[in-house]
Each structure stands twice: as structure tokens, then as C-alpha cells.
UniProtKB/TrEMBL annotation:
It comes from the Eukaryota. GO terms for cellular component: cytosol; presynaptic active zone. CDD domains: SAM_liprin-beta1_2_repeat1 (cd09563), SAM_liprin-beta1_2_repeat2 (cd09566), SAM_liprin-beta1_2_repeat3 (cd09569). Residues 172-236, 249-307, 332-363 form the SAM domain. InterPro entries: LIPB1/2_CC, LIPB1/2_SAM_1, LIPB1/2_SAM_2nd, LIPB1/2_SAM_3rd, Liprin, SAM, SAM/pointed_sf. This is PPFIA binding protein 2a. Keywords: Coiled coil, Phosphoprotein, Repeat. Residues 126-160 form a coiled coil. Residues 489-498 have a biased composition (Polar residues). Residues 463-498 are annotated as: Disordered. The keyword Amino-acid biosynthesis does not apply. The gene is ppfibp2a. Belongs to the liprin family. Liprin-beta subfamily. It comes from Salarias fasciatus. One of its GO terms (biological process) is neuromuscular junction development.
Length: 498
């Protein structure tokens, strides 16, 4: 019985061992199968990652090439910036030298005038000094023009250095936008802008009310300046007027004979683009209320349009022309008109044109501007009939026979209201129905003080006015409407009912 029990136990043990052996064999095969599957999956992942690494390597190579190109552009820009700074320093030195010479000549001239005796020799010397003084003034003005050009190039270089990459304005960073505001003449709003702006898209999505609330931009002309710039960024339409900054506009006011408004225009940061889109209400905001001055600015903007906003289109000094044509006179500055008065023996009255707004564009393009208007501005007494007749003759020779005929016919027309120096411009009073639709109304070209049809401009810088007997000299200034109201304004003159 003991042996049988031992054999029985041994048989049971052998069965258990075989069972465990079969189970372990199956477990190892399953693991091996899973490991094979994992191996194939890893091989596939390694293959995909290898392809991605190769693609990233190609991109890195392209970016390195692009980086080298941009570094070369940056080096070129920095070199150009250094050259511009050197040129600017040289111009400043020349300007200081010339200003010193001017001061010396002024002192010398004052010394000569203080001495007694007005002999022919001293008078001749004084005239020579005055001539030298005018030449030096021309040189100073030329240097000022060059300085402005270099400043524009310098500003463009700064912008290029800040942005050597073509990034949409919506993606500009906060620092880039603040830098642009500083360059754009709106540096007083940079501090509040840093707290509000996240990127360029913040400004693009903002309303004028947002500018006033978030940036403290209370001046409506500052808001308009901002809107025009952002519109240019959005439409990507380049306008030549955008190259003329607010510093140039103050010099332009000198040229057209309205220096008394320089402070208002400068504070409002009125630049060339804003000049192009000026409205009557804008001028009233700038405290320009004279009807004559409105017409002066209108004609001056027309000349800018005709010359594609060339910053140097106005002529300040006499040229070599013996008898200038109307297309040349239309580009005369206020100072050039004063030089003409000296040439026609009216030198004693020439200083009266300072601050009058009289320039070549107003003389040629405004039909109501006649020799009588000029005599009034020059303060030539009515009793001096011979002097006024002499002025009328010289004026007719200046503007030409066709313009003289047009001005005469316009002056003789029924309902004509003479141009005076006292007429004021007031905003048009809106009725209730107009006021209710004011928020919905969108500005159009008729709102601008000088709406210009580009097709009406000719090559010589003077527009076509087909309804007039004298074609080629008058702008499309909407004459019939001007007698009752001027593009949303009412004109009140002393003793005249319109």
C-alpha cells in the first residue's frame, strides 16, 4: 500500500508539472507575439519621426538662409542710417554758418541805415546787401528743404529698422504700435496706449469713442488722423499725401500766406493726408472762420492735387521767365506774389499781403478774386484811382486775357456777391430730420473742402471747368451752390443777404 500511494502521488505531480509547462509555453508565445507587434509599431514611429526631422531640417536651413538675408538688409539699413545722420549733421552745420552770415549782414545793414547821409553809393551798397541777404535766405530755405527730405528718409529708415519683415498691422506688437504712434506725431497718447493696446488689431477694431475713452484722445482731429492712418493700413492703398508730415504742413501755411494758423494746425498734428480730406467743420475746429481763407486753403489743396502732392510744387522765388503763364502763376507762393508786386512798382504795399492767404492758386482759380479784391487786401485807398488802375492793368497781364474775361463775366452775373475780407463761415444749422439721421450718415466726397475729380486734372497742374467760357483755369468749386451755401456752410457778409 505504501508503494502504491507513492506511485499515485508521483503521477499526480507529473500531471501538474506538465500542466504548468503547457501554461508557461502559451504565456511566452503571447508575450513574444505582443513584443513583435510593439517592435513593428516602434519601427513605424521611428520612420515617421525620421521624416519629420528631415522636414524640420529643411525648414531650419531655409530660416537660416532667410535670417542671413535679413541680417544683410539690417546691416545695409544701419549703414544708410549712419549716412543720413552724417548728412543731417553737415546740413545743420551749413545752416548755422549761413544763419551767422545772415545775422552779420543784418547788423551791417542796420549800421548803414543808422548812419546819416543817403548818398547814391550807400544806397547802392544797401541794395547789394539786400540782394546778398535774399540769396542767403534762398540758401537757408534750400537747406531747410534738404533737411526735411533727410528727416523723411531718416523716419522711413527707422520704420524699416523696426519692421525689416512684412508683418500686417494687426499682428504688430504693443511696442511696435507705440513706436509707430511716436513717429506719427501722437506721442502724448503712448502712455495710456501701453495700458490698453494688446497688438495692432486693438486699434483696427476700435471706434473713435474707444480712442477718446481708452487713450484720452479728446481732439477730434487727432481721432481723424488716427482713423485715416488705420484705414490706409486696412485698404493697403498708398497715397502720396501720406508722405507729408505735420511739420511740412506748417511750412505750407507759410507758403500760402496763412502763418497765423500754424499753431492750431501743429497742435492738431494736421499732415498731408488730413489736408487731402479736410472738411469745412475741420477748418472751423482749427479756428479758420474767414471765407477768404477757406477759399485760399481750398485752392491751395487743389494745386496740391494737381501736382500729385509734390512737396516742392510751390514757387517761392522769381525764375527766369519774362512773362509767366497762368499755369506757372497758379504755383506761386504768397512770397512770390509779393515779389511780383515789387516788380510792378507796388513794393510799399507788398507787406500788406502777409497773413492774407493770397497765393497764385487763389488768384488764378477763384473767379471772384479780382484786382479790386487785391486792392482791398493791399489797403490801397479808393481815391487813388490811378494806382488802382495801374494794379488792374498789371493784374490782367498776370492772369491772362481768358481769366480776365471769365472773372468779368462772373462778376457781372445775376446774384453775384463780391468777395470781401470780412465774410465769415458758420456751420450749417441742421433741421430736426437731418439731425435724426446724422449718426447714420457716412461722409462722402462732397464733405471735403476741396473734392477733386482726378479726371479733371490736366498735365499743367490746372483743372478743366467745362461750364465756364474760360476752360483750363477754374477748378470745380461748385459755383452755383456757392452763392447760397458752401458744402454745408452758411456765409454771412456785412450788409449782404444770401
Amino acid at each position: 500500500p505504501l508503494k502504491q500511494t507513492s506511485v499515485y502521488r508521483f503521477g499526480i505531480w507529473l500531471c501538474v508539472v506538465n500542466l504548468h509547462s503547457n501554461t508557461n509555453s502559451e504565456s511566452y508565445q503571447d508575450r513574444l507575439s505582443r513584443l513583435e507587434g510593439d517592435k513593428e509599431s516602434l519601427i513605424l514611429q521611428v520612420s515617421v519621426l525620421t521624416d519629420q526631422v528631415e522636414a524640420q531640417g529643411v525648414k531650419i536651413s531655409d530660416l537660416q538662409t532667410s535670417l542671413v538675408e535679413h541680417q544683410l538688409k539690417l546691416s545695409s539699413t544701419e549703414e544708410m542710417l549712419q549716412q543720413e545722420l552724417l548728412h543731417r549733421t553737415s546740413l545743420e552745420s551749413q545752416k548755422l554758418g549761413l544763419m551767422g552770415e545772415v545775422s552779420y549782414l543784418k547788423l551791417k545793414l542796420a549800421d548803414m541805415e543808422g548812419k546819416q547821409g543817403h548818398g547814391a553809393e550807400r544806397q547802392h551798397k544797401a541794395e547789394g546787401l539786400l540782394k546778398e541777404l535774399r540769396i542767403l535766405k534762398d540758401k537757408v530755405e534750400h537747406l531747410e528743404d534738404q533737411k526735411l527730405e533727410y528727416e523723411k528718409k531718416l523716419k522711413a529708415t527707422k520704420v524699416m529698422e523696426r519692421f525689416d519683415l512684412n508683418i500686417p498691422f494687426s499682428q504688430w506688437s504693443k511696442e511696435q504700435v507705440c513706436g509707430w504712434l511716436d513717429d506719427y506725431g501722437l506721442s502724448q497718447y503712448v502712455s495710456l496706449s501701453r495700458q490698453w493696446i494688446e497688438n495692432g488689431q486693438t486699434l483696427l477694431a476700435a471706434t473713435p469713442q474707444d480712442f477718446e475713452k481708452e487713450m484720452g484722445m479728446k481732439n477730434p482731429l487727432h481721432r481723424k488722423k488716427m482713423q485715416l492712418a488705420l484705414k490706409a493700413f486696412t485698404t493697403k492703398v498708398f497715397e502720396k499725401s501720406s508722405e507729408l508730415d505735420h511739420i511740412w504742413v506748417t511750412r505750407w501755411l507759410d507758403d500760402i500766406g496763412l502763418p497765423q494758423y500754424k499753431d492750431q494746425f501743429h497742435e492738431a498734428r494736421v499732415d498731408g493726408r488730413m489736408i487731402q480730406y479736410l472738411t469745412v467743420n475741420d477748418l472751423l475746429t482749427l479756428k479758420v472762420t474767414s471765407q477768404l481763407h477757406h477759399l485760399s486753403i481750398k485752392c491751395a489743396i487743389h494745386v496740391l492735387h494737381a501736382n500729385k502732392f509734390n512737396p516742392n510744387c510751390l514757387r517761392r522765388r522769381p525764375g527766369e521767365e519774362n512773362q509767366p503763364s497762368p499755369s506757372e502763376v497758379v504755383q506761386w507762393s504768397n512770397h512770390r506774389v509779393m515779389e511780383w508786386l515789387r516788380a510792378v512798382d507796388l513794393a510799399e504795399y507788398a507787406p500788406n499781403l502777409r497773413g492774407s492767404g493770397v497765393h497764385g492758386g487763389l488768384i488764378i482759380l477763384e473767379p471772384r478774386f479780382s484786382s479790386e479784391t487785391l486792392a482791398l487786401l493791399l489797403n490801397i485807398p479808393p481815391q487813388k484811382t490811378l494806382l488802382r488802375r495801374h494794379l488792374a492793368t498789371a493784374f490782367s497781364a498776370l492772369v491772362g486775357s481768358q481769366a480776365t474775361q471769365e472773372k468779368r463775366e462772373y462778376g457781372n452775373a445775376t446774384g453775384h456777391v463780391p468777395l470781401t475780407t470780412t465774410a465769415k463761415v458758420k456751420p450749417k444749422k441742421l433741421g430736426f430730420t437731418q439731425f435724426s439721421h446724422l449718426r447714420k450718415r457716412k461722409p462722402d466726397e462732397s464733405d471735403y473742402i476741396c473734392p477733386i475729380d482726378s479726371a479733371a486734372l490736366t498735365a499743367n497742374g490746372v483743372s478743366r471747368f467745362p461750364s465756364s467760357t474760360h476752360r483750363g483755369l477754374s477748378p470745380s468749386l461748385d459755383r452755383p451752390a456757392e452763392r447760397k451755401e458752401q458744402v454745408g456752410i452758411q456765409v454771412q457778409s456785412n450788409g449782404a443777404k444770401q
